[in-house]
Amino acid sequence: MQFLHCCKRVGYASWRLDPSARKWWLIMKLAVILLLGACLQVSAKSYAQRITLNEKNAPLEKVFSEIKRQTGYLFVYRDEWLKKARTVTLEISEGTVEQVLDLCFRDQPLAYTLVDRTVVVRLKEEKIEEAAPAPPPPLRVTGRVIDKSTGKPLAGASVLVKNSNIGTSTDAEGKFVITVDHPNEIVQISYTGYQTIEVPIGGRTELLAELEPSTSELDKVVMIAYGQTTRRLNTGSISEVTSDEIAKQPVSNVLEAMEGRVPGMFIQSMSGQPGAGFSVQLRGLSSIGSGTNPLFIVDGVPYNTSSLDQLSVVNGGLSPLNSINPADIESVEVLKDADATAIYGARGGSGVVLITTKKGKVGKTKLTLNVYRGVGKVSHFMPFLRTPQYLELRRMAFADDSSVATPDDAPDLMTWDTAKNTDWQKKLIGGASQIWDVQATLSGGERQTRFVYSANYHHEGSVFPGSAHEDRLSGRLNLEHNSEDNRFHSSFNVNYSIDNNHLAPDVTSYINLPPDYPAYDTSGKYYWANGLTNPIAFLANNPDNQTTNFISNGMMSYQLVKGLQLKTTFGYTQMDLTQQQSYPAIDQNPAYNPSSYTTFADGHVHTWVVEPQVDYNARLGPGKLSLLLGSTFQETVSKGNYVYAYNFSSDALLGSLAAAGGTFIQSNVDDYRYNSVFGRINYSIANTYVVNLTGRRDGSSRFGPRRQFGNFASAGAAWIFSQEPWAAKTIPFLHYGKLRASYGITGNDQIADYGYLSTYSSTPGSYQVPGLYPTRIQNSDYSWETNRKLESGLELGFLKSGAILFTVDYFRNRSGDQLVNYPLAGQSGFTFYQANSPAIVQNTGWELTLNTDNIKSSSFSWSTTVNVSIPRNKLVAFPNLSGSSYGTADLVIGQPLNLAWGYNFSGVDRMTGLGTFEDADKNGVISYPGDFKAFGTTLPRFFGGLGNSIRYGQLQLDFFFRFTRVTTNNSEALFYAVPGNMINITTAVYNHIWKAPGDLAGYSRPATGGAGAEAYYKYFSSYQGAFEDGSYVKLSNLSLTYNLPSGWLSKWKIAEGKLFFEGKNLLTITKYSGPDPESAGTPYGVYLPNLRVVTLGLHCTF
Amino acid sequence: MLLMSCCLMCSCKKFLTVSPPSTQVLGSNVFTDDKDANSAVAGMYFSMYNLNTTSPFNGLYTTIFPGLSADEFSSAVGSNQPYLTNSIPSSDNQLARMWQDLYSIIYQANSLLQGLSSSSGVSAPLKEQLLGEGYFVRAFCYFYLVNYFGPVPLVLTPDAAKTASLPRDSVAAIYGQMIIDLKQSKNLLADDYSFSMNERVRANKWAATALLARVYLYEKDWIDAEDQASLVIDNSGMFGLSGLDSVFLSNNGEAILQFELKGVSGFTYLGQQFIPFNNAIIPNFVLSDYLVQAFEPGDLRQARWVGKDTLNGTVYYYPAKYKQTETSGGNGEYDEVLRLSEQYLIRGEARAQQGKIMGADGAESDLNVIRNRAHLANSSANTKDDMINAILHERQVELFAEWGNRWLDLKRTGLINAVLGAEKRGWKPQDVLFPIPQTEISKNPNLTQNEGY
User: Fold this and answer.
1) Rounded Cα distance, A316 and A66, in Å
2) Inter-chain CB proximity A888 and B166 less than 8 Å
3) How far is A268 from A260, CA to CA, in rounded Å?
4) Do B27 and A760 touch (CB under 8 A)?
5) Residue B96's closest chain A neighbor by CA?
6) Shortest Cα distance from A303 to chain B (angstroms)?
7) B 173-202 → A contacts, CB under 8 A
8) How far apart (Å, rounded) are the C-alpha atoms in residues A199 and A209?
9) How far apart are CA A841 and CA A819, in angstroms?
10) Phi-psi label, residue B359: left if phi above 0, alpha if psi -120 to 50, beta otherwise
């Protein structure tokens, strides 16, 4: 304890030493000297202490003890050295210590050094530094700090005289003035994101310090809420995906590039269709009834990520993030804990994703061209039966049901050409999606003004038959300017994209059509069979979706006085989506009495935000203080119309609303306003201790007038213990070590607007006159969910400049005041109303990351990154759960939220061939809900990624694996295919079907209906039938780059050129029975699996 | 800038006050003027009838379900199967929706009644008409609730805090309330269709009278049933039987109340469900042999109101009262809610029960009016029992696949166990009532389940 106490003080030693600390400091230093048997070069100062001595031929040892007695000076020496020494004769009265010692050591084989009040004795062979002369007069030094490569002045850099408390920081021009006691002092200069350097003054009065951007992972800039820091000094839990990682992947949505790379963030693509959505869960499912999307912020401006898609053209809806070109992104930071997110208050509950786009850099104007061409295909097909086996199964089913096939119910047996075998899977999803991507970027600038201009064209085809495709065209301009004196800064960014999505409707759910099903009749018209959809006709209804997206944002800042900066960020984004899908009667199954109709939809959302901020940085006591105070004004208005138009004058005019005889219209307008005040206090001492406090007072229009405001706050702290002097000695292998912890409260307001009002809406159609109907029951008494987040993390860097970086995080988030659709008995007129429930959902988890530079040399380097997340989810409390609509087969206290429910399948009866199930409530029948049990969760048990990056000469190879351990929907249950019905099944199922009495089978007997079919429907509702192990390991990305030799390039005046091969989804290792465990689908549909994509491209910089 | 933001911060509260959405009207503002109040009533009718499955009166709940539960159909599409086999589980989703949808209409009616009663902004004659329609619709909803489920909670206010946990009330109490509502409604409503643009698509005095006649008949109040039915039948200036081909056309003379289709689609939900797209397809709902064989030879209704598909030698019959499925057919048909023919049969039965069998004021004349229109000869029934049976039989073939009349007739006459017990395998006496939806019981512990579920 005493030791620890002393260490802490030593930590402050370089700032101000009190005498007792000084003593400890010396003892430690000496201990080390003795241990190493080496000598420390230190300069001593003289003390005006007088000594009187009278010795004759006295051994040195005796003289030393006399001096020690008179002055208290300590002597440090080795006994064997003194044995070599001669005796001394002295007669001194009132001499100084130096005088006495000089006499003692005259003609001795020994020399001495004074370290404060200690005399260190050493052998004379070694060169001795002269004792320091009397202190020279103070020296005034002026200097300038610049970026070594660009020459840009670095404002606000910290300038410190080493081992002193003298310090200052640079002004807007990077200039500083500092007064030092000694011309030989050393100045330490540090700046966020740059390597810290030490400049010996050496008597100069003018210095130029050129800083190089930091190469250490630890000192790279990390974006945080309303600012930036470094990984070293960051107190929160933040993960980053860089532009390098994104560039190596042939993706059109940044979320896809992030899959598996962010610990704690579970991303799954919901379909392999271009433009499809992703489900994103950051640190688990925290809410029962409201949204759990992280807050996305693009260059400081909140970005709408909820799909405007009203026609549900793809599973999950068209993702708005598809409108952002991944190549324009510089970095994506994912903020996870309270320390990082509480400043976003009521919106930070599910985490925050900061997307920062690329900015121009000082230097020569650069033109970069990047072109790639690729092909996407379904990577795994299910082994369906061929016609003969399929027909045999059908006949078996009729026989088992003791029924006779008729042309009505078995056209596959009696009417169709049974010699035909169509592989519907290959026919419907076996095509190749053609991909083109062209990207051009122009960037450059000088000290005051920098710019980036980029344009991108991206084309993606479909694997379905036909010409479905998506085209995206986007352009972006970024301008930055600062005034001559560097006090004024501004940045402006505009991005516009047009996305034309002519997607085909997803026909994946029809891949199990009977193999002899004819798509066309003999006359060449679509063929229709009772109960079957003709997928070829279905595909004819190409929807047409056009998204335009305008993002603009800007920042202006002005340094009022030193350390005080005023700043305003502002942004405006507007997204518009227009959709149209026509359904001519001719393309629909006549069994459902079709008529021609068209659905038109449009959605618009615009957001503006203004955030004035004040930033103050100063030295305070021994540390640096940084303060932030800001305010947010935000409004998001969304509008939409949905028009169902019918009774067209001609089927040729289905695209014209004017030709519609009747319409059915729904409109919505939502206004969301948001206003808050936020602040942050950050205090750090010597890059060793960092404390970070944040707070926000939030007001949101989503809540009733009395419940609009709430307070959120967090406290975080980090201790970079590797900075401690003792650390270098006791754990020398540890280059970097940090412990951090945080606790705080964030919120979640992802619910519909106006939920507190009792309102009437217009009916979609009219009844003589347009109608009004009640849409909501009033409850103005609810507010946001509160998410209490606790986090602690340990970060370790081993070897020089962190060649091995290891991070482990533990978190516990408890989300309360759950916003649920509080169930109401239907007799009240409504089945629910919006309310807070005191239910608590807990997410805990471990997140581990390891980055290693295995080999690093000029010709060969190899680095590895691994991350694993182990999340756990639990419903801790839910008062009156059984009385709520979540009680029957949804939630269980003590269990995770997403439970896998089902009957317990107890095998197939060997005699009857029918599936049997456990009668849990022993009431004699297998019925819901009595026999329905929760068997586990469909939330991932663990997931993560493993990446390797290898460079050999001109070749660069990167590959990345993702893995997930999860239970997912069984593919058989998704197709709801009863073997024996007019639906194809896989050979895997076929082989395990009960076929004759006595069979030990996995599946019931084939059936066309009746008890056999019922047994299957029950099986599909059983846990064993509805769920299966969906764990997988995927080689999700591989990139091989060849850097063209510079000899060639210079001939063509190309600065940099490379050829690359990139692939995604190249290999999947899984036991899953369906096409893809990741986009397995839901019981409401089977969706196109993620495609395997391979691309070849060229990248040039001029 | 700092100063500016300080100023702005002071106006936080104001900044957060968003005006109500421009696509919605605050509940408190709906009943403050004629236009909005009228729109709320239009919205109530629209909620009752549109092609969406959640509109309780488009025919799924009120024609298909009871038709399947009785003996009108012999096949059903997938999820409706439990209704055909009288084995509806209390967890059935459609059943829960029916309950919720009917009560949501009652909520609309209650909101209307409460909003109008306390409103001074709506002009007096309109207010009376709208109030009358509110009472009528409420009674109409309870008629189906009480007949399907037996005792149900009697909800008479929109205040959820008061109504969400109400227990079931007695059948008698609910009938009592229906009679009160209908009498009130009769007094308030207009006696012509001028307020609904001369279309027979909103309840007027005669709709209330006709429904009241039906309620009295179910209550076995023969005298009142006869009186109310007579009031409608005697209004010959407004009502008269139509030819068989016109009965389901819009605003035909027999119609007392219809649902308008223009704002919804050009065709009825039932037409869309019953009529196959082409004659090579098995109809979704095939009429049962019991019903098909109930038609006497020469009954023109079989030719005009029953469709027929012959597939591979098998004949499938389906209801064809509504014939339009294609939008191109225009808006010739409206969904008929109350019609004069039923009033004749109500009066006939009420008279027979009172022993008035023969003669111009006897059951005989009412029955024969209906028979003759179907080109059938006068009935030979001449005793009370024969006459009652003859009228019941006539109701089966006249009102088939229409508003659940067969199911409700079998129930109210007590014949159900004898008839369905003989016709349907596995029939149990408790099947006369549908189960109370399980989700409702779990949300309102005061609800009890019907016997046998």
Assistant:
1) 88
2) no
3) 9
4) yes
5) A826
6) 20
7) 196-197, 199, 201-202
8) 7
9) 11
10) left
- Report the alpha-carbon distance of residue A474 to residue A498 in Å, rounded: 6
This prediction has a pTM of: 0.75
Q: Which of A688, A807, A624 is nearest to A233 (CA)?
A: A688
Reference A348, options A356, A336, A360; nearest CA is A336
According to DSSP, the β-strands at A139-147 and A206-211 are parallel
Residues in chain B closer than 8 A to A590 (CB atoms): 277-278, 281
Contact between chains at B43 and A767 (C-beta distance less than 8 A): yes
Q: Does B163 touch chain A (CB under 8 A)?
A: yes
CB crowding A207-238: b at 16 or more within 10 Å, else e = bebbbeebebbbbbbbbbbbbebbbbbbbbbb
Residue A569 makes CB contacts below 8 A (sequence gap 6+) with A300, A301, A553, A554, A555, A609, A610, A611, A613
Characterize the bridge pairing of strands A915-917 and A905-908.
antiparallel
Closest CA to B211 of B195, B222, B225, B191: B225
Q: Which of B39, B98, B270 is the mutation pick for testing A, counting most A CBs within 10 A?
A: B39
B43/A contact by beta carbon, under 8 A? yes
Subunit contact B266:A759, Cβ cutoff 8 A: no
pLDDT in tens, chain B (453 residues): 444 444 445 446 677 777 767 777 877 788 888 999 999 999 999 999 987 666 889 899 999 999 999 999 998 877 788 899 898 988 888 999 999 999 999 999 999 999 998 888 899 889 999 999 999 999 999 999 999 999 999 999 988 888 888 999 999 999 999 999 999 999 999 999 999 999 999 999 999 999 999 999 999 999 999 999 999 999 999 999 999 999 999 999 999 999 988 766 678 889 888 988 776 678 889 999 999 999 999 999 999 999 998 877 789 999 999 988 764 355 588 999 999 999 999 999 999 999 999 999 999 999 999 999 999 999 999 999 999 999 999 999 999 999 999 999 999 999 999 999 999 988 999 999 999 998 898 888 889 999 888
Q: In 3-state terms, what secondary structure has residue B112?
A: helix
CA distance B437 to B152: 12
Residue B187, phi then psi, degrees to nearest 5: -70, -30
CA–CA separation, B220 and B349 (whole Å): 10
Residues in Cβ contact with A965 at an 8 Å cutoff, skipping those fewer than 6 apart: A940, A941, A942, A943, A1031
Measure A765 CA to nearest chain B CA, in Å. Answer: 5
Residue of B nearest to A591 (CA): B277
- Min distance A684 CA to chain B CA atoms (Å): 26
